[in-house]
Amino acid sequence: MLYHLLYPLHEQFGVLNVFKYITFRTFGATLTAIVFSLMFGRRYIQWLKEKQIGQSIRELGPQSHQSKKGTPTMGGGLILSAITLSTLLWADLKNHYVWIALLVMLGTGLIGWIDDYKKVVQKNSKGLSARQKLLSQTVVALAASIALYVLRDSPAVLKFPFFKDLALDLGVFFVPFSTLVIVGSSNAVNLTDGLDGLAVGPTITTSLTFSILAYCAGNFLISDYLQIPFVQGGGELAIFLASIGAACLGFLWFNSYPAEVFMGDVGALALGGALGIAAVITKNELLLVLCGGIFVLEAVSVMMQVASFKLTGKRIFKMAPLHHHYELKGWAEPKVIVRFWIISIILALATLATLKLR
Questions:
Q1: What is the pLDDT of residues 172-231, one digit of tens each?
Q2: Are 269 and 189 in contact (CB under 8 A)?
Q3: Which H or E run contains 309?
Q4: Could you check whether the bond before residue 62 is cis, i.e. omega within 30 degrees of 0?
Q5: 3-state SS string over 204-235?
Q6: What's the rounded Cα separation, in Å, for the pair 45 and 48?
Q7: Residue 283: phi, psi to the nearest 5?
Q8: pLDDT (tens digit, 9 = 90+) per residue, 293-348?
Q9: Alpha carbon of 89 to those of 18, 162, 247, 287, 337: distances in Å?
């Protein structure tokens, strides 16, 4: 919005020429998102308390979590508001990638909101069934994938990191593949959201890393130098992704241990969906597996646990997702959280290293 309002005036007021640059607008969006989160976070938490929107805790979970019962949840609404406002203010709203990414985030967020609403407000402990949730996510992801395939201005390829010339032409299979990436990412972040600030930390590192990747992919000279796919208009996603990182950083002020508020499915499903669509647009689907390795490990631990129990009647982990396994091994919750954050930072640095290791 600011780009469209102020940049056209740059000939009369030279200082407004800065709105031409994605880097400047990314900084503006980052500042807006974190200020919004910090400014309205306390009021939002108070509103949740007044509405008695408190977290319910599974009886099967670690007993140490029972003390968290009643903590305000659905805090993801604050995160999504900050991201949406920042993106609309600072991004080029004529860019279709921006709108697709926003709509995927808000679409998966709506699914999470309905699930949270059923659990917390309507006191339906099951919320949406797994089938309803998965079907709804698939519809959102499929619509976005079809839109990207129709609007593409370059071949639908899958790029392999570390290899400058290795790429797989997906053709029409781009649609189911990208749908799988978006849905998988959405659910992986949701599974990670089990401890205070655990999901927020890796989301910050992953979104900021992908902000850099998006900027590089959207700049012809940089992408040509780094020999990565050029995505015309993809640079605007740097603004969207930086807003995610900044909004989560502001939310972490209230979500850090011991948490004053939880993001709920409305936040976790939306953030995962946003990272998934960003990876698809920038042609970095495989790098999402590396950069978001914490999310992948959490999701895989659940799949392994279920498969092992059904096939052998035995469990691989003390409890899944993975963070509960370490809790039951005796790790204090803050130790699990911080160590997972450290791993996430290392994976983010490894992801950025792939830009030159080809």
A1: 999 999 999 999 999 999 999 989 999 999 999 999 999 999 999 999 999 999 999 999
A2: yes
A3: helix 293-312
A4: no
A5: HHHHHHHHHHHHHHHCHHHHHHHCCCCCCCHH
A6: 5
A7: 60, 40
A8: 999 999 999 999 999 999 998 999 999 999 999 999 999 999 999 999 999 999 99
A9: 15, 36, 14, 29, 33
